[in-house]
User: Fold Cyclic peptide export ABC transporter from Steroidobacter flavus.
Amino acid sequence: MLSFLIRRFRGALLAAAIASVISGSCSVFLVSQINVVLAAQTTAPLQGLKFALSAVAAMCAHMFSAMLFQNLRQRAGAELREYISGQVMQAPFRYLERVGSASVQSALSEHTASVTQFFVSVPALLTSGAIVVGCLIYLMVLSPRIFLVTLPFVALGAFGYHLAHLKAINYLRSGTAEQERLFEHFRSLTEGAKELRLNRAKRRFFSDSVLSRSIESVRRQRTVGMSLFVAASSWGNFLIYAFLGLVLFVIAGDIPDRARVLTGFALVMVYMVGPLQALLVSIPNANLVKVAAERIEALVRGMKSTELEVTAVSEGALRSIELQSIRHRYHDPQSNESFHVGPIDLRFAPGEVTFLVGGNGSGKTTLAKVLVGLYPPEAGAILLNDELIDDANRDRYRQQFSAVFSDFHLFDSLLEQRRPELDERGNRLLARLQLLHKVQLREGAFTTRSLSHGQRKRLALVVACLEDRPVLVFDEWAADQDPGFKNIFYREVLAELREEGKSVVVISHDDRYFDVADRIVRLENGLVV
Ligand SMILES: Nc1ncnc2c1ncn2[C@@H]1O[C@H](COP(=O)(O)OP(=O)(O)OP(=O)(O)O)[C@@H](O)[C@H]1O
Assistant:
């Protein structure tokens, strides 16, 4: 993920990185000039000019790199969100069901924000890095003997930091994993608002034992992780002052040019504390970026689809859809239990109304999902007009269907190019379903979606009819409708769709209307009986 972003913006990143290093180097040069002036008896005007030019150069380089990095951050955020959204839209539907919406939401919000933080950490890392390296070089030039003494200190500091760092990153990783569970609980806060209000005991349990525990766990893991990093950077700071004390009071002795060397060391070491701290702080930030990038990568990896996206809907008219010995299986790894649908053989033809009936949990919705191509069959074959459906043409196959599942989603518009005739047809259908006084279709968008559940379902029916696909699937559409609308749906709408030559699949428990069907398919425990 990060390497992709780095490759994508490598030109601008390189320019901004060079500017950061220039800014850091100019700062070190300024400090060295201060030391020269402090040690000299007089100051030459040329030195003043050099100092002023370096200060201006440091400012310009810093400004340029910071602006460029901010710009890159926004561009990277936008591209990452588009990339993840694109992957989500083409991901296998079953995979999305399995990972759940909380993982997708946190990838799009929290993790994306963390990854783009990289573009803010980099200038700090580079500028501070350049200052620290520059300072060390200056110290080496000033007194190679004293500088050699710094090496064990650097090694000691690096070792201590590395140990803390390894421990900290584990805490950050598990904190991020817990946070995804927390996002799921946040969703329950709004989606389960009714249930939580109606039952005080459940509300308290959810609050104390589920939500607070998860919030606390994220807080604890992140606090421990970040505290370890802070402890490590404080350790680095301490070593600087310990080293300075050692130089000033123990090692210096009677080295040549004592005053100039010691002033230089003191000045540079004190100056280095800030950038070193920034450097040490930006390392945990870089780790947060790494952890977030790993989460996004893990999520997106499962979204890879081998299907080809259709560019145009198939021209040929529907003649038949055949399911040949198709099977689907849900497996729960926790309980190691499975539910099997199939083997099932069915044929669907135009102008035919098929009712899919059976008890709760008998597999009707699952079969419908296999039929419309949301679940590729795990065994058996699907044939559209005698053509075998596989990954190469599955997306084209799905374009044959309009479906209203029980957990349907209503977009606020038809998501189609504006067509006045579409508005007219839609409003006629809305009038027919007695919704026109509540909602209208204007320029392809609905005037409102604040409707009752039954009304929203009627709106979903209108959307499905307007799509004008050869096959329509209704999953217990009539379950929430009053008798009048049930009658319109079963006796009028289905009859009209049949007249238009549509193949209609209706999942239903309304045995009063079973006579409407041309064929009834009864499922029991995943099998047609
Ligand atoms: N997304 C899923 N993940 C795992 N198992 C599932 C999933 N959806 C359904 N199942 C399992 O598959 C079985 C059949 O479910 P399905 O929704 O197909 O039944 P149904 O006949 O449509 O039931 P109902 O009449 O209650 O809507 C259920 O027992 C359930 O355990």
Observations:
- The first helix runs from residue 2 to 8.
